[in-house]
Amino acid sequence: MASPIDKKTLEHLAKLARIELAPKEEEKLLKDLQEILGYIEELREVDTSTILPMTGGTDFKNVFREDDGPANTNRGAGVEAFPEAKDGFLKIPPVFE
Fold this sequence. Notes:
Blueprint: H1 7-16, H2 23-44, E1 85-86, E2 89-90
Antiparallel strand pairs: 1-2
């Protein structure tokens, strides 16, 4: 079987991806892609006719807790120690004038 990817195809893909490849990078990438696609071809030969399809891969359920707010906050604590406060909030001088 002929290689599914050749130098011309790699150059076209590089152009589409807008990347420049040095000749040495081109050789390595071409070899890597050929190996990857060869492995995929090898996987296609595996008989999966007796295997039931999977819809999600797992039967796990969502185990997150309900989103409850904290029972007790210390909002407003320390306001009395701050130089200025208004309606329970700390008042600071303006950053920009």
